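Bit of a strange request maybe. I'm writing a small parser for structure token strings and I need a real example to test against, not something I typed by hand. Could someone generate the tokens for this chain?
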Amino acid sequence: MRRAAISVISNFVEGYLKKSKLEKDVYLERYINSLHELDAQAEVCLRLKFWSEDAYNKFFNKKSEVGYLLYRYRSKLF
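Reply from user aminoacidic:
Good idea to test on real output. This should exercise your parser:
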């Protein structure tokens, strides 16, 4: 999960620094995929009882907030 979480911001920054919209979109797509990875891993943590329902909800709310901001940024590019 740590790797996927770091991947979100790393891909965002790398994409932000690219010149063309097409290049930017490649990296922005990667950060979206990393968010989806985090979703799947969080679901596993919840089902295996590594996380409480409360911990999962806190994670989900934060992830949703980050996802919303990143999707808005991407939509402004295109």
